[in-house]
Amino acid sequence: xxxxxxxxxxxxxxxxxxxxxxxxxxxxxxxxxxxxxxxxxxxxxxxxxxxxxxxxxxxxxxxxxxxxxxxxxxxxxxxxxxxxxxxxxxxxxxxxxxxxxxxxxxxxxxxxxxxxxxxxxxxxxxxxxxxxxxxxxxxxxxxxxxxxxxxxxxxxxxxxxxxxxxxxxxxxxxxxxxxxxxxxxxxxxxxxxxxxxxxxxxxxxxxxxxxxxxxxxxxxxxxxxxxxxxxxxxxxxxxxxxxxxxxxxxxxxxxxxxxxxxxxxxxxxxxxxxxxxxxxxxxxxxxxxxxxxxxxxxxxxxxxxxxxxxxxxxxxxxxxxxxxxxxxxxxxxxxxxxxxxxxxxxxxxxxxxxxxxxxxxxxxxxxxxxxxxxxxxxxxxxxxxxxxxxxxxxxxxxxxxxxxxxxxxxxxxxxxxxxxxxxxxxxxxxxxxxxxxxxxxxxxxxxxxxxxxxxxxxxxxxxxxxxxxxxxxxxxxxxxxxxxxxxxxxxxxxxxxxxxxxxxxxxxxxxxxxxxxxxxxxxxxxxxxxxxxxxxxxxxxxxxxxxxxxxxxxxxxxxxxxxxxxxxxxxxxxxxxxxxxxxxxxxxxxxxxxxxxxxxxxxxxxxxxxxxxxxxxxxxxxxxxxxxxxxxxxxxxxxxxxxxxxxxxxxxxxxxxxxxxxxxxxxxxxxxxxxxxxxxxxxxxxxxxxxxxxxxxxxxxxxxxxxxxxxxxxxxxxxxxxxxxxxxxxxxxxxxxxxxxxxxxxxxxxxxxxxxxxxxxxxxxxxxxxxxxxxxxxxxxxxxxxxxxxxxxxxxxxxxxxxxxxxxxxxxxxxxxxxxxxxxxxxxxxxxxxxxxxxxxxxxxxxxxxxxxxxxxxxxxxxxxxxxxxxxxxxxxxxxxxxxxxxxxxxxxxxxxxxxxxxxxxx
Length: 907
Fold this sequence. Notes:
Layout: H1 2-9, E1 34-40, E2 43-50, E3 53-57, E4 60-65, H2 69-72, H3 77-89, E5 100-104, H4 110-120, E6 128-134, E7 147-148, E8 154-155, H5 169-189, E9 194-200, E10 213-215, E11 220-222, E12 231-232, E13 238-239, H6 268-275, H7 293-296, H8 321-351, E14 357-361, H9 380-385, E15 391-395, H10 415-418, E16 423-428, H11 452-468, E17 472-477, H12 490-507, E18 522-526, H13 544-559, E19 566-570, E20 586-589, H14 597-607, E21 613-617, H15 631-638, E22 642-644, E23 653-655, E24 660-662, E25 672-674, E26 680-685, E27 690-699, E28 702-709, H16 716-725, E29 737-741, E30 744-748, E31 753-769, E32 776-790, E33 795-800, E34 805-812, E35 815-821, E36 831-836, E37 844-850, H17 856-862, E38 869-873, E39 882-888, E40 899-905
Helix pairs in contact: 4-5, 5-8, 11-12
InterPro entries: Class_I_gatase-like
């Protein structure tokens, strides 16, 4: 306890937090399982250890919302039916999915916890529990949140109509007390089953910085889109239901000048924290103050609100001290949020004796669009690296991803979590057919599946994307009306889950360590620093939403349809030593606008290597180390000479290499053009000038290829051609969605037709899986699957096998040592065949010897169990005689044959 106290006090927290409370609850009475993230077959999974032993589980589980109306009416029927249905369909041992349940607490009172525990204790089996806890209560002595509008007018919420709190010490201490109480009481009432805590907060419960407006009459904070969020424009017309990316009511373009709202935390604790923040540049220390709303929303110094219909510039230029202050204030607000999250999760770890997994909803880098700069979600790198954070979760995209025929896209970079031995959690709140009545189904928002088969196809796509990508996923019945199991529709509910069982079985067959293992060849590196250097709400005037969408979310959606898998990392991951880029042929930098010297060096050494192509977009490299923004810095990053355009641009383009037109239909300030005589032209502005170029650049050992797109919008055909030219393997035609890694491939069809699926190499055996209870063999010794019929939205999954792997490590005297494992049957012991004096067919066969020696290092590497080491003594092995060893396939004649492990001489 004393050691843990020292660790907690030593945390680098937020400046206004002088010390953590010393009143800690004792963890000795905690009865929940020891919950950790471990390696299984090369994937990250959850391990739960309790009195019954340890089990690993693919991280798929149910999530239920007790804040829903049925629970509020004390009707637990939907809750209980879905919880029992999920538990029953994940209980079979061969699927390796433990019954796990996330519950969004209706409230944190002891009375409600008693109700909830009463329901949970009746389930059989009792699921392991993740508590999702909202931190929206305020301490009794809370100070009001002080905010400002775009004109700098101070607003507060003194009558309690909005949110009377801010991240001060009183609020943090209060929430620590609530976490302690809820965890201990839940453990008491539902003993032995609490495995995780997820904390959520602010608008939507997901740590966003909102609201955006304020009603002077009611003294109430207003969220975006509120019918009460109104402003009068220069045309004298009053418009309500304003959105943060437009000056009008959603119609673009509209009358200018309505965008008079923009609020954020300007409390004294926020300003004091900013001015003592360790990340503050020296130039801002003297006479330090918070950045004003105008400064944070204006990359064109000197322009005064509310003339926000005109472009304000897309990148805050540190040459202007006010723009630098704005960028750093944006960055600080994210750092402040992350410090609060880590402090509260550290408390949860301490309360439970470090036995639970901690989780938070954070990291919407792809989903927040125009809100991203001021969202508070721009410090994902710090959160990922915190020892107090195990899981980071976000819902999946609300755009194309809700539809069949498109990719399942998260709202951030999931692959960055694996580098830290942690889990990315996708919240799957698919509105299945059960979300509306069968007699007269009127689809609810974001519902695209209104029949059983479409619901199954969507969920199969989502589950397999998450599984192959090494992510966790949970099904959330957001409204509590039985989206994943309706007690009045048992046949459809049970059929839905019966089909998912085949997916669970397939997911457990994913193997990353086989001899034929595939690794994705396209990687995106999204930056959570550059977003702070963009204006808050209207970087491109009335076109801000379109610009923000093209910059990240639309690009990411398009990349899912390349016909090849894509991995997603943080740009700062390039500085990590365990990032394996050996398979990556195309790296994409979508928003690397403000790049430090440290990260630039990592780009130079990790990405600009022989044989690789790097695609950079728009203002790539424009800012370096808070120096004045220059095109020289862009040229240094991209390797292609770039110039800043003059005048108001027309960014429509012609792409000569794919015979298409496209590009943004709106102007941007600044805008850029390629002036490098050594670069080949791939696209031109219709108004003149090069907009897209490629250049081969020599480096030690060969050359790398730079492709620079001066505008942020590229058509899918251009992205596919760039990836083809980079040498990327494409499994399926453009427009189809592919996820693949290790030994497994998913194809989700974007169109109907007969297709050829190209495998990365000739495979011994290929099976179709995830569709049938047992896998179906498709072919042997094949490199492609031909005449494959798909309907648009079909999800088909294939796995291939590998010959055994192993290593003949030592021959000491006549003692033979090493290991052998068949990743197709990773828990099964196998054998090695030994020949003396020559290889098989030449030497003398000395027999088969089983793998009968425990090798924990081999099990850890492959993420498996079983006995895979061999150690035996050969008689009559004279010095100098060569011993040849082969790893045998435990499947015998139906398997993939043996693997030669090499030879060594007897000594």
